[in-house]
Amino acid sequence: METKKIKSWNVEFIFEDRKNTVGIQAKALNLTLVGQEDEDVLTKMGMKELRLTRIMRFTKEAAQQGYIMNHEELSALLFTPLAILKKDIAYLVAQGHEVPVTTKLKNINRSGYDCLIQMDHGPLM
User: Fold this and answer.
1) CA–centroid distance for 46 within its chain
2) What is the pLDDT of residue 102?
3) Residue 124: pLDDT above 50?
4) Which of 3, 7, 29, 30 has its CA 20 to 30 A from that of 58?
């Protein structure tokens, strides 16, 4: 049985202030949730390397759209605990990679924000 590789899968994430508590407008980000290289990275190098690849991709794509993600947002997108995420970011920075991320909760507040996900993708295979 022949399997086809996923080319890419883009998703639009919208961060919005549901309670309108801090006056920040909704921000839509188009992020590549599954990249062309993800399957190869996972099979050849493992889950940690896939997570590192996605950290770099998500933060760079967000920065290119004028948005600096914070640790909590990135943690939620990756389904990764904050402690592991912070270690991963420190590792990437020590390796010389630029990881545009902020530790401040200026973009999201757990009690007042929702992240809406709008799928915008073609066939997965």
Assistant:
1) 18
2) 85
3) no
4) 3
Distance CA 71, CA 113 (A): 15
Phi first, then psi: give them for residue 113, nearest 5 degrees.
-120, 150
β-sheet bridge partners, residue 14: 28, 116
Q: Binning pLDDT at 50, 70 and 90, where does residue 51 land?
A: very high
pTM of the model: 0.72
The token pair at 56 is 């770099």
Phi-psi region of 30 (alpha: psi -120 to 50; beta: other; left: phi over 0): beta
Angle subtended by helix axes 47-64 and 71-78, to nearest 10: 130
Secondary structure letter of residue 20 according to DSSP: -
Length of the chain: 125
